[in-house]
Structure formats: structure tokens, C-alpha cells
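Tutorial, part two.
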Amino acid sequence: FNKPEWYLTQVLMWIGNHAKFLDDKIQPILDKAGSSVNARLEFSRALVMLILEKLAADIPCLLYDDTLFSHLVDEVLLFERELYSVHGYLSSFPSCMHILSEESSFQRWLAVEKKFALQKMDSMLSSEAAWISQYKDITDVDEMKVPDCAETFMTLLLVITDRYKNLPSASRKLQFLGLQKELVDDFRIRLTQVMKEETRASLGFRYCAILNAVNYIATVLADWADNV
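Running the prediction step on this input gives:
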């Protein structure tokens, strides 16, 4: 159970390898019989049901190992992305996100997501390049003088959104949004702490970088306001 990519990849290979046979040989039989069944999608659905059984058995064994559980979530998200984008799987069909939405799995996912996000924030703010813009030498790209830590933080929020956006339940998505709000507030507190250290040099490099970071984050959040 510590290598979910083995069975997830195998299922994707089975779906891909059987697509032509199902389309060319089985689908015409169904069509001739007047059936509305899509052979390839039903084949995919049956294999995904096996995945769901496997996940339901494996997840309880992984709940208290952050690294293995996080790895499982990563692999499941990659599997789902390929299942929908490459193989045309339908959002109305059962999916792995239903398993990850179950209470014990979901709360663990939320906790692990928060843990690794906070570690990332520690890392980005302790970096030597934290207050330097990645684009400082490209004038037309660097109008807002955005320090690296602010840009990395907003990318972190965007990645989290991308990970939970396909959850089937709006209430689960809102819980993830709650986590993002917590992270924004945590980042605000961290910026305030750094700013207090810089009050004697309010025109100094780092103080100005903090103001630029706040302006950038506020601007991006305003841009995201239309994203339901």
C-alpha cells in the first residue's frame, strides 16, 4: 500500500490499451442492440470501482503516516487528472475524490496539507532570496517589485486550490478555503513580525519589500474574488 502509483498506473494502462478494442469491436455490438452504454466509459468505471475498494482498504493503514498519506493523495490527484483529461472519464461517475472526502480521510488530508504548507512558509521566509524579486533585472515585468516570498506564497495558495477543486462536495471545498484563509492570516502575522524588526529603517530595503509583498497579495486576492 506504500506504492499506490503501481496499481493506479496499471489501471490507466489497461484503460488506454483496451480503448481501441472497446471502440472498434464492443461498441458497435452495443449500438446495434440499441443500447446507450458507452463501452469504454463502462470499462473505465468498473476499473475505478476496483481502485476505490483498494483505497478504502489502504487508507486506514496510512492515516498516521504523514509522508505515506501525502504521497497517496499526490498519486491519486495525478491519476484523476489523467483519467479525466486523457480518457474522458465523466464527473458524474464514482471517483477517488469521493473516498478522500470521507470524514477520516478528509480531516487527515486537511491536516497534512496544513503541515506541509506551514513548512513551506518557514522555508520561503528563511531563504536568503526571500525579500528579493525574481525579476529585479527585468523592468517591464517587475512593476510591483514583488519579493520572492510573496510570489511563492501565492503560488502555494494556487497549488492548494488546484488540489481540492475537484472535490465533489462544496462544503469540503469551503473547509479547504478555510485552511487557505488561515494560511493568509499566518503569513500576515509573519510579515508583521519581520516589519517590527525593521521599524527603525522604514525606508530600508526589507521594509519596502514587505510593503510590496502586502500590496501584491492584496491585488492578487482581489483578482481571485470572482473565482467561485
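The chain has a mean pLDDT of 90. In part three we will examine how such features are distributed along the chain.
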